[in-house]
Prior knowledge:
By secondary structure, the protein is mainly alpha-helical.
Amino acid sequence: MTSESSTRNSPDHSRIASIQKQVDRVIDDLRASLPKPDRLSAEERRGIIARYTAVLEGNFIYWMTGAWLAVRSDAARAKIVENLQEEVRDAHPLMMRKFAMAAGALPTTADTVAVHQSLTDMRLFIGRLSSVRIIVTMAFFEGLIQQFMPYLAELARLQGSSEMEYTDVHGVCDIGHTEELYRALDAEMKLADEPIAAGNTFFEGVDLLRTLIEHIVTGPAAMARADKQYDARARHVPAPGIGASAVPAQA
Ligand SMILES: [Fe+2]
C-alpha cells in the first residue's frame, strides 16, 4: 500500500498540480455562471434548492461508497472513510432534509424528473468504479461545494428560512482537506491499472457532475434538453466494464 509520506515527493507532482488547476477552473466557471439569487423568482429559487436536495440527500453517501469500493491506496481509503464517518455520524442527509423543509423546498415529482437523466449518468459513472476518475470527481465536488454553500444559503434566506446548519457545515474551506485529497489522487494514480491518460475521459466524472449541477440550477429547461437526448440515446444502459466513454456527458 502507498502511504502519504511516500507520495509527497512524487514525480507526478506537476501532473497533479495541472489537474488541480483544471478542476479549479471548472469550479470558477460554474460559480461565475450562477444566476444572482435576488434576480430569480421565488419559484426559481425554490426549484434550485429542491433539485439540489433531490440529488444530494440520497446520493452523496452512495457516491462515496462507490469511491471506497473503487480505490486501492491507503491515502484514498482514509480520506473516503473520514468523509463517510462524518456523513453518517452527523446525519448529513437529515441536515439536508431540514434545510429543504425550512425553505419550503422539498423536491416535487417535477424537480426529481428535471435531474433524472444527468443523475442517472452520474450513477452509472460511479458504478464503473474507475478509481482515478472518481477521485478527480471528488476533488471537484469538494472544491465546488464550499463555494456553492453561500449561494445555497442566500437562496434559502430569500425564501424566508434561517435553518442554515447544512450550509454552515459544508461551507468551511479546509485547505488541508483538499491537499489530502490530491495526495490521495497521486497515490491512486500510481496503483491504477487502467488507461488513465486517455484524453477527455480523465475528467469524465467532472463533466458529468458539472452537467448535473447545471441542471440543478436550470431546472425545467434542462429537462426539455434531457428529454431529447434521452430519446436519441434510446435508453442505452452500458454493460459493466465496457469503458469510461460508454455514456457521453450531456451538453
Ligand atoms: Fe455532507
